[in-house]
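Hello again, I could really use a second opinion on something today. Take your time with it, there's no hurry, and the full record follows here:

___
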Amino acid sequence: MGHLRQEVEPSEAGLDPKALARLDQHFSHLVDDLRLPGYLVSVSRHGKVAHLTTYGHRDREARLPVETDTLWRIYSMTKPVTSVAALMLLEEGRFRLDDPVARFLPAFADPRVYVSGSGAEMKTRPAEQPLLIRHLLTHTSGLTFGFYHSHPVDALYRDAGLESSVAPGADLAGTCDVYAGLPLQFEPGAEWNYSVSTNVLGRLIEVVSGQDLDVFLAERIFGPLGMTDAGFCVTDEQAGRLAELYGEDAEGRITPIAGLPLHGRPRFLSGSGGMVASAHDYHRFMEMLRRRGELDGARLLKPETVDTLAANHLPGGADRRTFGSALHREPGNAGLGFGLGVSVVVDPEITRSPSSEGAFGWSGVASTTFWVDPRHDLTVQFYTQVRPTSSHSIYPELKRLVHEAVLD
């Protein structure tokens, strides 16, 4: 069991205590106004936790407080973990980024690409090039999510029972076979579209390593990094520390909703969004990335591999607003490129909130987020458990408030 602990005073780490107090005040008001149940935020500088706050409840109805060892459904913050696992196998020479996915997952051998129409009238054509492992890591595969409701291919995902990204009753292998039987939205590599790609990457890890995804992550990442609570399910001993999940209505009020079925090992191991972790766990993971692949003597990746992970891989230095599919051409994606499993700041002058060039990270659907800022030698993580009805204001405000706290 891992508790995250503050290690130095903010001023010792070049952070402004008054600015951090404003950060705490902002989010505590959201709790007091019943818009969040509770939260945890940590800011680390030069490898030391310099600010750590818990406030409110992990279970509002039971009056159980957020604590430093609370467990959180991190949803899409699973993706960077899965991406690191894939890059570990890449370093071992088990595959190359430009290998076809079909070399390991034959169901993806002959992808077809959407042309026009919908439903039974949909027209498709053979893809001009194979789907590559690189495309999975960069979300340029042409795969999608069924819950988008923005493209005719999304509707095919729903028709196949994939609105929650898992085929009914299927495991990871079976679900990936269903993905493979559906057309791609676009030619592989042609656009950026956030998708089920990381689930396919998780299956590729299983095939290449010969281990189930949860076993591989436990043995190769969680164990070496001391991520003592991270995994795809909670034990009876851990269950009392798991935060309740809340949904948000149109007026911003929150009520408990069903979350991931975390009691017992899931049949479907989602490398895209299936993990639970504590702040201590993810702090260890962030620190490994900040230190370019190593932590406390455990080296997961070479420094240059982490540099590649955190570099923008969109063509010509494009950002997600210009290179994204129609769904993603929104102001919030301006100035943000994409690396190998993480968002990357490429132009801080046009981002929605203050940022540093080269900062990278990702978020989860329950309003969790993290980022690593190499320029300021900074790592930040924020946890609550609210699935919002629309784009949440937590992220830009959090980034603005942290940015204001950095003194040098």
About this structure: The first helix runs from residue 17 to 32. The mean pLDDT is 96. The two ends are 34 Å apart (CA to CA). The chain is about 30% helix and 20% strand.
